[in-house]
């Protein structure tokens, strides 16, 4: 065979494989990706597991997987993996015929949040890097990163004092026998206190008013404003970090309440990153309740949706007989007025100062 014919055959094969990989490179190639856990805390390590399969006879010279992943998920450097400055994660693979590759990346969760890493771009190319076949895929890779739970010595003095007050109050229970009157039902009232005769007579739900001073229910209120004169909804990085400290305090106190058997709820004027996750969590006491609060804190965006005193006005009718802790960078005459009204409804109200507010 003459050299010319060899060159012709090589050229034909090169063109054929270019055409094939340009249109069929990803045929029977599948890609999946998942986190080893769906939930973690700040500072913990998780794995991102990638699986790439080729279910055909022809090998794929190279496959590149690209996706945007938040810088708050810190990768450990590994072979065949690159991470560009704009936070594009890239993995490079060679796939033989009927082969499967599993690759594990160790990730440190640097910051709380909800991270959706479901979109990825898969590119397969030919031997010469001339042709490529590209497809966008959706994979099951989401993770909630909860705020860190602080140790007691890391909590401010006001939080520790509030814990002590709640511990004492939760043992001052309502008198199960002495009923001092009847009042309208409020959200969170136990069913056993419903006065059925009064309900039938008035046509609206009525409950027995028992002789007691305090209730073993707690409510954590986080203010995403840095001052009552704040302009705009977003905060400067320094001010946002103050509120982030408040997020960790709320997570820590919620954990303590659940461990201590205290009903605890959460309320904030921030914004949810997920429409189906409600940031208004009524008081309950269970492991599932702690998950709900931590999930709300994970998806919380430090962005004010309305003034805190307006939020308290809207929720006032549902807030009674609670130990309320307002975690805020400031205190104002308007907040003091709302605190006075809340105390008149049988609540205790404590301000826990964060950051450098006045």
Polypeptide structure, described:
With 358 residues, the protein is of the alpha+beta class. The chain has three domains: 120 residues, Immunoglobulins (Immunoglobulin-like), CATH 2.60.40.10; 162 residues, Rossmann fold (3-Layer(aba) Sandwich), CATH 3.40.50; 33 residues, no CATH class. Helix 4 packs antiparallel against helix 5.
Write a brief structural summary.
The chain has 358 residues and is an alpha+beta fold.
Number of helices: 7
Using DSSP, what is the number of strands? 21
Q: Note poorly predicted spans.
A: none
Strands of the widest sheet, in order across it, are 6-7-4-10-11
- Report the helical percentage: 25-40%
Oligomer classification: single chain
Total number of domains: 3
CATH architecture of the largest domain: 3-Layer(aba) Sandwich
CATH fold category name of the largest domain:
Rossmann fold
CATH class of the largest domain: Alpha Beta
- What general outline do the C-alpha atoms trace? elongated
Give the overall average pLDDT.
Answer: 85
Order of helices and strands: HEEEEEEEEEEEEHEHEEHEEEHEHEHE
Alpha carbon gap, first and last residue: 90 Å
User: Structural class, from helix and strand content?
Assistant: alpha+beta
Task: Specify Rg, calculated over alpha carbons.
Answer: 29 Å
Strand content of the residues, in percent? 25-35%
Largest sheet: 5 strands, antiparallel
